[in-house]
Amino acid sequence: MLYSKIEGEGKPFIIMHGFLGMSDNWKTLAGQYVEAGFQVHILDLRNHGRSFHSDEWSYEAMVQDVFEYCQANQLSKIDILGHSMGGKVAMLFATTHSEIVDKLIVADIGPKFYKQHHQDILAGLNAVDFSVKPSRNDVEEIVAQYVSDFGTRQFLLKNLYWKEPGQLAFRFNLEVFNNNLDAIGKALPDDLVFEKPTLFIRGGNSGYVQDADLDQIRTHFPDLKVETIPNAGHWLHAENPKMFFELTTAFLKE
């Protein structure tokens, strides 16, 4: 079963993180959604955070995990939000389990195929040799040689934890990501459609969802609303959490 944090009472609202993320990334926003009257479920997807590791890593497998999570928690009518990789999971889940989903929110990702672009990040993570028992500072110095952006490094290093006294490790399953990296870019199958209300939010400075993509998105999600957060990149929910919260809450309460 997937690891989750459940807070609040009201309409169940599932939130799913992106690649190399975890539920903790959404902790602050989750608290705001609780105050807005939702029962919030922030998940760790398989091979991420505190959830189980598995050699099988695909969108189909992740969707099945979420379906089993809903069944185990008796969630029959939900709203769902996913960012980046989590957005791809949310799209596939909504189109294949539409009887469960009332509203879908997708943050800065489209249904199209994305070419692999995480090579520098993975090179930095793979350069860390935990057998020599590095400190947190040591790990950051190694990753910084490959990942120059401070914010991205801090996001990655949230995955560090003490596996045992004196021994750090990453929470995510780096070996499986190395072996199955093309899985993350996979497109939503052409024939899948979700006809209920859908909100796509994109960052104004992010190239993930472009104007040229909108017609294709509408073929999958005909009841579509698109919002753009200006001056925000791919991590739009972290860069402008106030606007992100306002846009998503307004949509959920329509």
TrEMBL record:
Asked if Endoplasmic reticulum is a keyword of the record, the answer is: no
Q: Which Gene3D superfamilies match?
A: alpha/beta hydrolase
- Where is each AB hydrolase-1 domain found? 11-241
**Keyword Manganese applies:** no
**Assigned keywords, A-Z:** Hydrolase
* Family annotation (Pfam families): Abhydrolase_1
For this UniProt entry, the molecular function terms from Gene Ontology, in alphabetical order, are: hydrolase activity
The record's section on PANTHER family has:
PROTEIN ABHD11
Name assigned to this protein:
Alpha/beta hydrolase
Species, as recorded: Flavobacterium pectinovorum
